[in-house]
Amino acid sequence: MELLRIGLFFGDSEIPPGKNEYEKGNPGIHFQIIQNLRDGNGFDLLLFPAVFLDEYLSLGPHPGLFFCSGSLHQLRHSLLLGAGDFLKIPWDWSEVHLRWDLWRSRNENRRLDFSVPGLSWTESKILQTLISHAPGFVTRSELANCIKKSGKGSRSLDVHIHSLRKKLNLHLSIQGKGPLKTLRGLGYALDFLAPGSSP
Q1: What is residue 31's predicted lDDT score, i.e. its pLDDT?
Q2: What order of strands is seen across the sheet that includes strand 29-33?
Q3: Angle, CA of 101, 52 and 110, to the nearest 5°
Q4: What are the residue boundaries of the structural domains of the chain, listed by start?
Q5: Phi and psi (nearest 5°) for 32?
Q6: In this structure, which long-range contacts are made by residues 83-87, counting pairs with CB atoms below 8 Å and at least 24 apart in sequence?
Q7: In this predicted structure, what is the pLDDT of residue 21?
Q8: Cα Rg for the chain, rounded, in angstroms?
Q9: Beta carbons of 135 and 197 less than 8 angstroms apart
Q10: pTM > 0.90
Q11: What is the pLDDT of residues 148-180, one digit of tens each?
Q12: pLDDT computed for residue 194 by the predictor
């Protein structure tokens, strides 16, 4: 049986009771409390409070998948910055296990190729880059590398983003705000949590 290893970065008072009992009833899963976010390497999943999200991302390339917990107003920020899922406080052991199974099922079966008609070569490359980072964001500099011809400057990227957003919304039959979001000071992201943004 494949073992699912989940690292937990929480204070003792934030850990729900019943961890040992849950592990005994589910031998394929193991929760381990860690003392430092840097110790998150080697786990299949890392779970920590959303208030530590910026610190975690500052450590460099993050190891694998992570979930964040916290209040509802932190949900969108966490998911846009790459969290695989979000747990509202209070959470319990079975919820973590269930959300892992759901995340894995969705990501094994989903196809992130929208095949949007009428895209230019550059627009297609930008879309694929956004898809490959979803639900996280992509910086402007990263997307600038998708521009076919160099030396066009930032205005060219803005033009491509505007055109891509328009064609994507048309393809998904969305009026108003669509899934391609501008994150000021960060970059761009595909956000299908917004109302009317489901493909």
Answers
A1: 93
A2: 29-33, 4-8, 45-49, 65-70, 85-88
A3: 30
A4: 4-109, 121-190
A5: -130, 125
A6: 83/50, 83/53, 83/135, 84/45, 86/50, 87/47
A7: 93
A8: 19
A9: no
A10: no
A11: 554 455 568 889 999 999 988 887 777 777 888
A12: 45
Q: Look up the CATH number of domain 121-190.
A: 1.10.10.10
The b-or-e profile of 160-182 (16+ CB within 10 A means b, else e) is bbebbbebbbebbebeeebbbbe
For the chain (length 199 residues), average pLDDT per consecutive 10?
Answer: 85 87 92 88 87 81 73 77 81 89 67 66 83 77 72 72 89 76 86 48
CATH class belonging to 4-109: alpha beta
The number of C-alpha atoms within 13 Å of 126 and in the hemisphere containing its C-beta is 30
Quote the pLDDT of residue 155: 67
Phi–psi pair at 138, nearest 5 degrees: -125, 130
